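Case study.
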Amino acid sequence: MTSPLVRAPRKNPVVRTRVPNLPPGMRSRVALGLTAAAAQGRFELQVCRDCGRVQYPPREACCACLSHRLDWRAQDGAGDLVSETTLRHSFELFFRERMPWRLGMIRLDCGPVVVAHLHGDCPAAPARVRVRASLDRAGQAVLIAIPEKDTPNMADDRQLREMTCDPKFRKVLITDAKTALGQALADAVVAAGADLVWAGYAEPWKKSPGFERMASIPQVSLLALDLTNSRAVRDIAGEIGGRVDILINTADYHRNFGIAVRNGIEVARAEMEMNYFGLLRLAQEFAPAMRARAADGQSSAVAWVNLLSIFALSSFPPHGTYSASKAAALSLAQCLRAELASAGVRVINVFPGPIDDEWSQALPPPKIAPGRLAAAIVDALRSGAEDVYPGEVAEDWLTRWRDNPKALERELAAASR
Amino acid sequence: MSDAVLMQLVADLLAGRIRIIDLTQTLSPDFPQIVLPPEMGQAWPFRIEETSRYDERGPAWYWNNFSCSEHTGTHFDAPIHWISGRHLANGSTDTIPCAHFIAPACVLDCTQEAAADADFLLTVDFLRNWERQHGRIPQGAWILMRTDWSKRTDPVAYQNLDETGQHTPGPDTDAVRFLVDDRRVLGFGSEAIGTDAGQAFHLKPPYPCHYYMHGSGRYGLQCLTNLDLLPATGSIVIAAPLKIKQGSGSPLRALALVPAPTGAPSRRPQGTVRKAAKVAKGRAAKKRR
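After joint prediction, the assembly is written out as follows.
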């Protein structure tokens, strides 16, 4: 059984901070199919459309009948641990620094035999286990076998924690904690064991309901932060940038206009100023220190979360300028992900449908509740995912977009008539 | 004659017999901007982005690009700012006669009233009482309402918002009409974020100071500071907005000239100017050699 994680002693300031080394990150284009599914928290394997064979590792053709008609299908990952080994030596720097390391061979019920990282709570072979696909620090899918049934403190497993971005004993910056979502997130990360939450707020003269309650949580520390103010972002980064382990950018400017229903560009500009340039300012000021601290002990800098919108994939014309700002933010978030990848800091993009707030008043349910969205973000931090589509609307739109982006464009255009 | 007046003015400034008071708040990203319902168009706060700072973006020079509303920080309101003044000739920042940019000021001390009641409304009675003490308000003067509101350096206290909106002092409707029609003032200046009171939306008409002042071609000054350093009468305000084409207003550097209190020590060290002139002469002489 995993012993619960203990808060690490304070860092010795005269010792060189460990440089982030990454596990092997090369994958073939076909193997990236595993990563694409793991990015959304799914374990998928290739299934032959002709003979039904499930195969691993990913290949160009079916290993049984040579058909190239292979589909990625979700697998439940149940299987038998048939053997295990504990690595005590490796030429890979990442593993060399983290010895010993437990690996197992698992015969999946769906057929293939896989080699996977082995959770400390998995009993000695033979035993039933579950195999999950997770992104590792290199941002690539790896397989990890966990016990058949959840065990206490499972998330505290040393090897698992090297894959996840668990908030436990970490310091979290929430850029806008004035909204219901920001407050729900503060609650959620504190409940998940965060050591400290910096709760950002702009325009202090405007009160927001619930803010004082959140401010009274012992782990919460208030921070005057307006992402449209470059100097403020720089000053705050100078103050706390070297301590932030998880950054959750919830700052969002959302108005409900297309092109024709609003004169001028001021609203669109305000949306871009916050949603796009705000992210850019934040990234320029906070990312360097996070990169530098990506292997800084048990509570290293691990994740950067962006609150995007499902409207980033395809414009929702009634909220057209907002959609455009979120599409711009998505593009920038991909750039940030690429730049943080070499340090192993994960960029998690969250694409909710309409949130149940004042700026989606005119949209019919289902709308995602702030508390549910916050829970989905914490889930993503604890699992190995990097793209999150929480709630029914987001899932539905994603499915339609993947199936046929042009059809979705037409359907959303019809919504604005 | 006027030559002599100007020379005397310069001499008095140099000698510290006339002091220059800065009535301007610093343009800073932290200074609050006016609050409107969020679905309406919004005034930009002051924002500043570095262009270069002796670095790869410009090795030997430092400069910034900044953005703000015409109505950010200490600013001037032109008549076309309000719907009542929209058809007036010479009502925008580029067409207002320059002669209006320098004018005497009457400073009304409302500090006690504003301290007792954030929603304090300036009345005709108050104005008449002021005139009994300081004389009739001259035509073409700025009326500056001193409330010490600018001493509220915490933006929350400065904005003073609650569930019913903003609570800041300003004039009532009759006082504005009295100033506009009976005293023919140049404009109205305030230390708070608007010339109108925070709750002036509920007056008749809404925002009477904007409505009548601008409707009659008069001006506004907002977010002033240091009014406590001005005498009730006898100061001159220099308030020239930027020459924005069809501008409704502009941030500005508002200054006041005030006579130094008699017997006060001169603020400017004597001889500085003369010394500077000597140095300049010496340099020129060297060049010639």
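Observations recorded in class. The two ends of chain B are 40 Å apart (CA to CA). The domain at 20-29+64-259 of chain B is CATH 3.50.30.50 (Glucose Oxidase; domain 1). We will return to this complex in the next lecture.
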